[in-house]
Design a protein that fits this description.
seven-stranded mixed β-sheet; Lambda_DNA-bd_dom_sf; Endonuclease, Chain A; about 280 residues; 7 strands; Cro/C1-type_HTH; elongated; alpha/beta; DNA binding; 434 Repressor (Amino-terminal Domain)
């Protein structure tokens, strides 16, 4: 598994390594003895126990058999897979196209009562107009060199907007002013997108704040993130989706969101910034 910038992923990997190490010690085996039983070099055992290498399903099965603990195999495999899901490279997620990921996000929104979003690099998916979503997802597909299913992926992304109008969901969104000015697509696409933002501001389910260029920064610009209730954060980097579920880290994201929200403007002032961006086109 690639090294993750999220400490929760490393913490979970370390916890798995500790469990495997205890399993070996409980069996009364040295690292060399376990390696011999598993048929691999002792250096591999060392890397696994230090959390430097992620064991495969086959590695875990062999480890458990060597320790006469086959009854723990499935639980350890499930734990390892959960660690792996914390850091998911976009090229891996998009290896068959983007539609599946959009459907997974649909489920996350469906199950969340409150979705808090900090958008520093683009309009959130559930606020996107068709032209904007198409232009953005086309550029992502071209950059990653993954299969082109943009038409289906856009349809799946736009389906999320239904939660703005039904189901009792709440969307608390903070957008950097830069997002309003960055031209994704041509002038017509951006004009339609910004006009669409104006149309969602009055919705009872929506709180939209814009952080002006001129804001005195108490919190520096961050990578965009989605906070689903108080249980799950999805952070989007250039290369990967990071899933954070560790309570301490979630609390940090909540704290950052409050700090960012304090710098934002809302209501008429937010509308003015959006209208100004339209005029600039």
């Amino acid at each position: 598994m690639p090294s993750s910038p999220s400490s929760s992923a490393q913490a979970a990997r370390d916890a798995l390594a500790v469990r495997l190490t205890h399993l070996r010690k409980d069996a009364g085996l040295t690292g060399k003895e376990l390696s011999a039983r598993c048929g691999w070099h002792p250096a591999k055992t060392t890397r696994v126990q230090k959390g430097e290498a992620a064991p495969t399903d086959a590695d875990i099965r062999a480890w458990c058999v060597a320790c006469d603990a086959a009854d723990q195999t499935e639980d350890l495999i499930a734990t390892a897979r959960a660690v792996d899901s914390m850091y998911m490279e976009w090229r891996r997620l998009h290896r068959n196209g983007m539609r599946k990921v959009q459907e997974d996000f649909y489920t996350l929104h469906e199950n969340a009562r409150i979705c808090r979003v900090y958008a520093s690099n683009g309009v959130p998916g559930f606020f996107q107009a068709p032209g904007y979503a198409t232009a953005l997802m086309r550029s992502i597909t071209n950059f990653q060199g993954t299969p082109d299913d943009v038409t289906d992926a856009v349809a799946a992304r736009l389906a999320r907007s239904r939660f703005l109008y039904q189901g009792g969901h709440r969307f608390v969104v903070l957008v950097e002013e830069w997002v309003l000015r960055a031209r994704i697509g041509d002038v017509r696409v951006m004009s339609d997108q910004l006009s669409h933002l104006l149309s969602v501001i009055p919705l009872a389910s929506v709180s939209l704040g814009v952080i002006p260029f001129t804001a005195q920064r108490a919190i520096w610009p961050l990578e965009g993130f989605y906070l689903f209730d108080d249980r799950h954060v999805v952070v989007e980097t250039l290369t990967a989706e990071i899933n954070v579920r560790q309570p301490r880290e979630i609390a940090d994201y909540m704290k950052a969101f409050r700090g960012l929200g304090a710098m934002a403007v809302y209501g008429a002032k937010a509308r003015q910034l959006i209208e100004s961006a339209i005029d600039a086109l």
